[in-house]
């Protein structure tokens, strides 16, 4: 094969094959190329999402949904409204809390606004007193329903290519022997003796290290985050 042939971009059938059979890394790589094909590409991504609808959602579903959402093409938006009205993550809540606003922010990669809203949702889970004070006690975290924490976490996971979420922070925390002093620089919450300053020193995009988001205020100590990362939601 000559050099010119090797430089030819893959055709749409090859891209579709890579999407359906490739590794997660390949799937992430080919999605934008498929989207660039216009209507034919939209159809491939739509069918791909539909084919996975009965499976637990992953960041592959999240990325596919995000790309389609960003097209602003009326037919594509109608498809998403019909089949994925509340996104690709089931918004389960034992306390009838509305997680759709959080889903919408994360699907648009609005991570700073989503982080603020996550705290608000935790306050809702804690009750009226927490809503008024705008922060939570670790004893309240222990009473959070499993489905609610799993919903919040799954939204973060699915819309961050698997980089963000409490389950990611828990995994990193366990990997360093539950040593907070080792964890903080690993997730870029502290550098040396200096805590990362909110909001400008935090990274509000996917260039951040794994586990960087969502945030938890450590000025009051580690009890809240300890309660979150020790919650039975991650082992049930």
What's the total helix number? 14
Give the number of DSSP strands: 2
The coarse overall form would be: globular
Distance between the termini: 53 Å
Q: What percent strand?
A: under 5%
State the name of the first-level CATH class of the largest domain: Mainly Alpha
Instruction: Kindly provide the radius of gyration, computed on alpha-carbon positions and rounded to a whole number of angstroms.
Output: 20 Å
Q: Order of SSEs, N→C? A: HHHHHHHHHHHHHEEH
Which sequence of strands runs across the widest sheet? 1-2
CATH architecture assignment of the largest domain: Orthogonal Bundle
- Classify the secondary structure makeup into a structural class: mainly alpha
Percent helix, as a range, is 55-70%
Biggest beta sheet summary:
2 strands, antiparallel
InterPro entries: ARM-type_fold (IPR016024), GUN4-like (IPR008629), GUN4-like_sf (IPR037215), GUN4_N (IPR032192)
Pfam family, one: GUN4
Domain GUN4 N-terminal ARM-like repeat: 4-85
GO cellular component, one term: outer membrane-bounded periplasmic space
Structural features, described:
This protein has 236 residues and is an all-alpha fold. The protein folds into 2 domains: 3-83, Serine Threonine Protein Phosphatase 5, Tetratricopeptide repeat (Alpha Horseshoe); 100-234, Orthogonal Bundle (Arc Repressor Mutant, subunit A), CATH 1.10.10. Helices cover 56% and strands 2% of the residues. The protein is built from 14 helices and 2 strands; from the N terminus they run H-H-H-H-H-H-H-H-H-H-H-H-H-E-E-H. Strand 1 and strand 2 form a beta hairpin. Helix 2 runs antiparallel to helix 3. The longest helix is centred in the middle third of the chain and has 16 residues, at 111-126. Residues 1-5 have low confidence and may be disordered.
